[in-house]
């Protein structure tokens, strides 16, 4: 056995780090909850209001869904036809594999008509391209390769949605948002607010991991024992037939069994 899987619901905690980009025919707005990054946007930067809440439906200590409301003020003459939002979480696996990492969730929508709001509901699934080790304690992944934040805010490109997605594209472990329901509220938000309402559910994931030596030996012993029982049974029947009927050259020793004198007892060898 080279690998194995088990089910676990990742623990996602909001990191209080977001990135928003809104575009229209003559509009280009950006926002970040990290002050050092937001300062890079200059005149394109726009202060926003963010409300978040996590919901633990089964009270097991792990959030089952995450609710976010992003409010972007729109001035006169501005309109929004495309929006991108990146929300950063700290993801943890606490089962067989124990990892901690910062991971982004990307929400995007593009419409040909100006809108005043977006409602989206979907799932943020854990994705992996390689098996996880299960030996030792917790491992912090990508600690030296932050995707976004003060450490990576050295250029405007590094603090954009495209820059963030490019930096995490080569990771073996991440999360991916899959929208199930989306609604674009058509209408001009001129002089009002553009509101993004997101409902992100966190489902169980099938975690691929490298089994320990003990688990490999236990699995191998079970399989080989089952095979040997079947093979041994048919070998015994075959050998008995060959020896009894002397299909090949066979030596036989005739003995008496206990007090039953004259009753032959055959030994096959």
Blueprint of the fold:
Blueprint: E1 4-8, E2 11-24, E3 27-32, H1 35-38, E4 49-55, E5 65-73, E6 80-94, E7 98-128, E8 139-140, H2 161-168, E9 173-186, E10 193-201, E11 205-209, H3 213-244, E12 252-257, E13 260-268
Parallel strand pairs: 7-8, 7-10
Antiparallel strand pairs: 1-11, 2-3, 2-6, 4-5, 5-10, 6-7, 7-9, 12-13
Sheet with the most strands, sense and barrel status: 9 strands, mixed
Total helical segments? 3
* SSE pattern, N- to C-terminal: EEEHEEEEEHEEEHEE
**Overall pLDDT metric:** 86
According to DSSP, the number of beta strands is 13
Form type? elongated
Count of spatially separate domains: 2
Class by alpha and beta content: alpha+beta
How much strand? Answer: over 45%
- What is the gyration radius calculated from CA atoms? 32 Å
Give the low-pLDDT segments: 150-154
Helical percentage: 10-25%
Alpha-carbon distance between the two ends: 38 Å
């Amino acid at each position: 056995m080279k690998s194995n899987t088990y089910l676990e619901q990742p623990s996602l905690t909001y990191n209080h780090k977001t990135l928003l980009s809104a575009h229209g025919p003559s509009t280009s707005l950006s926002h970040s909850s990290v002050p050092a990054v937001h300062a890079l946007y200059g005149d394109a930067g726009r202060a926003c209001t963010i409300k978040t809440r996590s919901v633990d439906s089964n009270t097991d200590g792990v959030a089952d869904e995450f609710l976010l409301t992003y409010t972007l003020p729109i001035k006169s003459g501005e309109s929004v036809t495309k929006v991108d939002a990146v929300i950063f979480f700290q993801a943890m696996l606490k089962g067989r594999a124990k990892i901690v990492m910062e991971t982004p969730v990307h929400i995007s929508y593009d419409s040909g008509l100006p809108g005043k709001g977006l409602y989206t509901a979907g799932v943020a699934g854990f994705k992996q391209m390689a098996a996880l080790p299960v030996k030792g304690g917790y491992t912090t992944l990508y600690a030296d390769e932050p995707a976004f934040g003060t450490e990576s805010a050295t250029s405007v490109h590094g603090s954009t949605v495209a820059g963030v997605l490019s930096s995490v594209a080569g990771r073996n472990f991440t999360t991916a948002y899959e929208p199930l329901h989306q609604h674009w509220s058509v209408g001009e938000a001129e002089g009002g607010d553009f509101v993004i309402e997101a409902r992100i559910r966190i489902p169980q994931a099938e975690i691929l991991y490298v089994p320990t030596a003990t688990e490999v030996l236990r699995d191998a012993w079970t399989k080989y024992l089952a095979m040997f029982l079947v093979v041994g049974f048919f070998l015994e029947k075959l050998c008995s037939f060959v020896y009894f009927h002397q299909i090949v050259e066979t030596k036989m020793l005739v003995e008496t069994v206990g007090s039953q004198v004259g009753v032959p007892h055959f030994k096959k060898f």
